Every structure is written in C-alpha cells, then in structure tokens.
C-alpha cells in the first residue's frame, strides 16, 4: 500500500522537474493550438450613439477611452445644461446652434459600456497627442483657439473629477495637422509640422526662450497644390534614440538632440503620396529581444494617387494606392521591399496586434482626405502577417456595413478587440442626404484569435509582480515575474508582448509600439499554473517609460492584457 501511495507523488515530482527544465525561446513551454484558421473575425455593435465624432481616440491605463472631436463642428449629440463658463444653455435659437452648449469630448468606460461628457475649452480639430510616463495624455495643437494649445488629461478610472486641463504653457507655432511622439528623455514630447509650418518643437521646453526649430525636410516635401501631402508626418523612435521621419514619399533619420539629419533613406517607390491629405498609414514593426532590440523595420501602406487631392476638389475620385513598403531603418543597408494589399486604401488605421500581426482597418478606396473628398469606403479589414512568406502575408477579414472614412479612428483594447468609431467628412453633424453621413455608432472588431474555440488554449489569470524595491513598475533591464494559468499540455511557443497604446487620429497611431520580451525561465506545475521570469527592455530608446499592455501569447492565442509600467531608471514613482 505504501508503495502504491508514493507512486503518484513520484510521477508528479518527475513532471514538475521536467517543467523546471523548460527555458525560453521566448518562452518555449506552450500549449497546442493556433490562430491560423480560416476565421475572419466578428463585428459587435456596442453603442448606437457616442454623442461626439471620434476624430481622436486614446486608451488610458484605467481601461477607459478618450473620444473627442473638434469644438467648432456645431451641435453634437450631447447637449449641456450650462456652458463650461457657467452660463445657461436655453432653448433660444442662438443657444441651440451654439457649439459651446454641447460636449465635444467623452470618456468611454469599456466595462460598463457607458459615456460621460468631458470639457474641452479650446479647439482640438486635427490635433496630436502622446502619453507621458504617468499615464497622462499630453494633447497638443488644433485649430483657431487651440492651434497653440497644450492640454492634459490625467485618467482616474471614470471619476467625475477627471477632466481636461488647459496648460498655461503654449506652443511656439500653430500646430494644425501636426504629429507628436514621446521621446526617450523623461516625459518630453516632440511636435512636428502643421499646415504651412516647417518647424518642430518640444514640450516641455528645456530653457525659457526655447522656441521652435527650422526643419527644411518639411519644406522640401511640401506640395502646395496638393494640400501639402506632408501633413501628419509619420514619426517612429529608433532603438538608438534617433527619429525616423517620413513625409510625402521621403524619409530621414534625425538626431533631434543635435538638430541634424543623420541620413536620407531611399524614396519609397511608386507615384502618389502617403501623408495627409493622401493619408496612408504607417507602423514600426515589433521590436524583438532576440536581436537585443537593435533591428527596427517600418511599414508604410496605402495613400492617394498623384493629383488625387486636386481631382477630388473637381469631383473626380482617383483610385488610391494598394502598395505597401517595408524597410529596415537600422544598420547601413536600406531598401524598400514592396508588396500589395488586396485592394487600394487610404484613410486607414494600422494597428499592431498582440500576436505581432498588423491590422489595417477603416478607410476608402478612392479620392483623398478632406471634406467629402473620398469615395468607395473600405469595409473589409486586412490582416498582415509579417513573418509569413511574400505573397501569403495578407488576408481579408469580415466586412462591416458601416463606412468609416474621414475622421474615423481605431484602437486596440486590453481584451484583444479593436474599438472602431467615427467618420464625418462633413464640417457639421449631418445625418442625411449626403454620401457619408456623420457616424456615431461604436463598434468593436473581434479578431479570430478571441473566438471561443480558442479558449482552451488561452492563458488566463495573468498577474504581474515587480521587485520589492519597485512595487509600482519595473526598471530597464530588471527582472519581473508573470504568472498565469494554462490548462492544456505544453507545446509550440509562448511569447510575452508589451504594447504602448497610441493616440489615434487621421490614420496615424502616434507612439504605437510593440515589443517581444525576453523570458528567462518558465515553469508550469501539475495544476496548470505557470510562473515566468521576464526581463524588461534594456533602455528608454527601446521603450520610453510609461504604461504598456502586457499580453501572454500562446501559440498565437493571446491572453487578456494586463497593464505594466516601465519606470525611469533615474526616478521613483511619479
């Protein structure tokens, strides 16, 4: 009897010992299962009315989403009892038509599926934004009263006291259709360009009289008769701390600390343009620990044909670009490797998924950006798998019935879905007798990897634990612990990804970034609980300090993401 009682214990000990010997290829102890089926995803309708157009969207680390429009678009669908200056909004005609009697920003709570109105004092039309290391959104520029505005939103989980705050500081130049990017420096942001503005500047300033800096690259890529074609330039942070900047068809590597162009990259092949109002999109592909995060590759997709902006103003809508270019921006050899989407596309969003794949969603097939300058909405998202062989990387996903054209946006949520909202090519809220009425429905696209048939392979109960000295986050190069539950036998590969949520507007996901983290050890016990030791990114140039969504990806099936925080090495909790 004694020998029989000890036999299961011996077997369990052997199994446990085997799991303790499993180390990482990022990690290598994973379960059976793959997301490489024929599933095309699903669409969910979340709300009939977001009350304001989602010209801009941003996910906060409190799992709420900021949605906001311009303030001069006339009446929205949320009328206020009082203006923000305290005066009453009456039923008189002048108040009914007054933009200040309506909300132009809301906060969406993901779990409750509810909205609350927010206060915007200056006009955010076609503005930019970046998250700071403490999760505060720094929001810059706009039009008119907001052209040089600086605003902050510090999320606090839907508390009614959280609202927009206008800074006493201001930008040096008007920043309408500018881009911004969080820099490796502690909580410093660069703002680049704007309509007929060929400069860049920083927030905050390093010294009292610091203004803006002349940027000839923008002047050289400007096409006046085409509406600019270099507005909302694409900005990506290289792992060496320099900036990749793309405008129109050209790109440079820029040392912002020295105000110096380090190199000019080859021009992307083909005619047409990629930046506003041609409005293609761009992403920096996932950075990977396997090369110590030293290799960076960008991807630029879609845009408008040469002359599309002028043609659209005359009522002719030229076919958009279907080409995509990929180029390694690190090292010394640079070449655009071209491939083609399943169809032409502009006004689209490019989002990095936890799997490392790229989702291309929203947009149109003809025309350009601007007031009713696009036609033929792109209803079908595309999925791009960077690691597949050329010719097999693109697939077409499930179509939506709701057109999402100019002034639409999309962001990735912690539960793996993609939130999709907006679309208003009109300068007012117009709901009938136009080609593309103002769209206030809120949708979620649910990628196939979230389908219930994958649940038995999905990591659950993900928990993050930092070191005793840094209970609020992890510092560069340090180890931290992640535990989760996995109910099936191990095989294939487990990966750990960290995602910096972007500020989304006008086909750009500003400061978007995905990193595959090093897993130093992984242990799964007999009850299915897995303990992993991960290593934080090595530097602020690889991953600027802030909040990231950590996801455990098992054979292509992601967990629900949990928020982790990367701290500055120089400071404590802020």
Helix/strand structural class? mainly beta
State the helicity in percent bands: under 10%
Oligomer: single chain
Strand content: 25-35%
Total number of beta strands: 43
Averaging pLDDT over every residue, what do you get? 91
Q: What Rg is obtained from the alpha carbons, in whole angstroms? A: 24 Å
- Major sheet details: 7 strands, mixed
Which overall shape is indicated by the principal axes computed on the Cα atoms? globular
Uncertain parts: 1-26, 28-37
State the distance separating the first and last CA atoms.
61 Å
User: How many helix segments?
Assistant: 4
Mind explaining what this structure looks like?
It is built from four helices and 43 strands. The chain has 574 residues and is mostly beta strands. Strand 10 and strand 11 form a beta hairpin. The radius of gyration is 24 Å and the shape is globular. Residues 1-26 and 28-37 have low confidence and may be disordered.
Give the tags.
34% strand, 6% helix, mainly beta, 4 helices, six-stranded antiparallel β-sheet, 574 residues, globular, seven-stranded mixed β-sheet
List the helices and strands and how they pair.
Layout: H1 2-20, E1 42-47, E2 56-59, E3 64-68, H2 93-96, E4 105-109, E5 114-118, E6 128-131, E7 137-140, E8 150-153, E9 165-166, E10 179-182, E11 189-192, E12 199-203, E13 213-214, H3 216-220, E14 234-237, E15 243-247, E16 250-255, E17 260-264, E18 281-284, E19 287-288, E20 297-301, H4 308-313, E21 323-328, E22 337-340, E23 349-352, E24 358-361, E25 364-367, E26 374-377, E27 382-384, E28 394-396, E29 408-412, E30 418-422, E31 442-446, E32 460-465, E33 474-475, E34 479-485, E35 494-500, E36 503-505, E37 508-510, E38 513-516, E39 518-524, E40 529-535, E41 546-554, E42 557-558, E43 562-567
Parallel strand pairs: 19-38, 33-43
Antiparallel strand pairs: 1-31, 2-3, 2-36, 3-4, 4-5, 6-7, 7-8, 8-9, 10-11, 11-12, 12-13, 14-15, 15-16, 16-17, 18-20, 20-21, 21-22, 23-24, 24-27, 25-26, 27-28, 29-30, 30-31, 32-34, 34-40, 35-38, 35-41, 36-37, 39-40, 41-42, 41-43
